[in-house]
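Give me the fold.
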Amino acid sequence: MRPAHLALAVLVAAVWGVNFTVIEIGLGHFPPLLFSALRFLVAALPAVFLVGRPKVAWKWILGVGLVLGVAKFGLLFVAMDTGMPAGLSSLVLQIQAVFTALIAYAALRERPTRTGAVGMAVALSGIAVAAVDEGTSGPLGAFALCVAAAACWGASNVLTRKAAPPDALNFMVWVSTVPVLPLLGLSLLTEGWDRDAAALRALDWQGAGTVVYVAWVTTVFGFGAWGWLLRRHPASTVAPFSLLVPVFGMSSAALFLGEPVSGLRWVAAALLVGGVALTSFAPAGRRSRVHPVDAPAPEPAVGRS
């Protein structure tokens, strides 16, 4: 990989890691579901008019839009709004690689290898350590919501594997059109018109900046650059850089938000990142002949946010 491409891969990981700190700041300006809806609205417009027609069937765009956009990000933003620290969120979400492997086995009959199974066990032990650490300092309910968000992310990865989009940016922009109305509706039902309207009336440059960052920088630039790298290098070369996301996530949260990083959290980070590495980069397992997969499956989206 050329030095410029190497720098771009690290930059994308940094953008995705810092994203959790930006989300935490944005939640000080918006209710969580409204903030998530604004993220996708700004990510979709005006990009949807520039990327061309969808290149996969609408069923995949709708499926990923609902599971990833509404469920995963809705749960994540609510978890962080109810006390889940930004740095820990960036770490715990990496368990999505384990959920991806488990759901792929259940839905696609993709059997994990022994190395992959060991990686899942190591990553799950990291989650257990993180839960113990959070249990002594924060709400476990928010922690559980973050784990549920990771499970939804895993399900969306499997749907994306089935969709096999040829253009990651085109796919992500069109997916971003789906969650806007469901998230706005849920926000009105659960957060209330008064709270939403008050947040919009009080909009300032910092609040607008967080929306622009999570929409254009994280989503449009991040996925666009990542897809560009994947078109020029093997996935096995590019994907390991995503393991830097929690490093940047925890570091930026400590630097800008003053979040403490305990010894237990570092242990959890080592176990999770190591386990995810084993799970993600183990040789592909055998696929059952009973339920063949129609389309080739791209690598799972490890570490993105």
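The mean pLDDT is 85.
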